[in-house]
Amino acid sequence: MREKAIVVANKKEHAQIEIRPNSSCKGCRGCSAGKEGKPIRVWAKNCVNAKVGQVVEVELGASTFLSATLIVYAIPLLSFLAGIGLGYKISGLLNINSTEPFAILIGLVLMIISFASIHFFTRRREIENKYSPRIIRISNDNR
Fold first, then answer.
1. Same domain, 122 and 68
2. Residue 19, SS3 per DSSP
3. Distance from C-alpha of 115 to C-alpha of 75, rounded to nearest angstrom
4. Torsion over CA: 7, 11, 13, 19 (sign)
5. CB 52 within 8 A of CB 8
6. What confidence score (pLDDT) does residue 89 get?
7. 27: which DSSP letter?
8. Are residues 40 and 69 in the same domain?
9. Whole-structure pTM over 0.70, yes or no?
10. Which domain holds residue 38?
11. What is the pLDDT of residue 33?
């Protein structure tokens, strides 16, 4: 996935970039760019030493984007659903009358554990190197 952006700040080997919504954003309601037309600001690895005010091309690999999405959404969702199933089984074994609230509680606990596990077991260096966007080229057009 490639986008054009404007560099708005620099900090060591990273640059804060502003991605303005393009024509494909207008139909999407996934973020503030599609909903309100507001630009998105993110930090990207500045591989080309871009300066403030320059228009750049930013890249985030499709497989990287997909794996990050699966980690953040699929693992907690599956944990929640497994917890609900486990909660039903345990409530039957323990003769708990309120099976639905108990099952939902167990599902929520497992989902929270999965979020905490993702947070604590994912190394910051790995996130910075693999899941951060990179500035790959300084563009000649001014948007």
1. yes
2. strand
3. 8
4. negative
5. yes
6. 94
7. T
8. no
9. no
10. 2-60+133-138
11. 55
Angle, alpha carbons 50-68-108 (nearest 5°): 135
Query: Which tokens go with 42?
Result: 């993110």
Sequential DSSP letters for 45-61:
EETT-PPTT-EEEEE--
Which residues, in sequence order, are CB contacts of 72 under 8 Å at separation 6+? 118
Cα–Cα distance, 76 to 104 (Å, whole number): 14
Q: How many CB atoms lie within 10 A of CB 58?
A: 22
Mean pLDDT, 10 residues at a time, the chain of 143 residues:
84 85 63 64 85 86 74 93 96 91 96 91 66 80 59
Residues whose CB is less than 8 angstroms from the CB of residue 88 and which lie 6 or more positions away in sequence, other chains included: 99, 103
Same domain, 55 and 25: yes
pLDDT at 130: 66
Rg of the chain taking only CA atoms, in angstroms:
21
From the list 30, 33, 29, the residue with the least C-alpha distance to 3 is: 33
Instruction: Tell me if residue 20 falls in helix, strand or coil.
Output: coil
How far apart CA 86 and CA 91 sit, in angstroms, is: 8
Residue 143 within any structural domain of the chain: no
Cα 130 versus chain centre, distance:
12
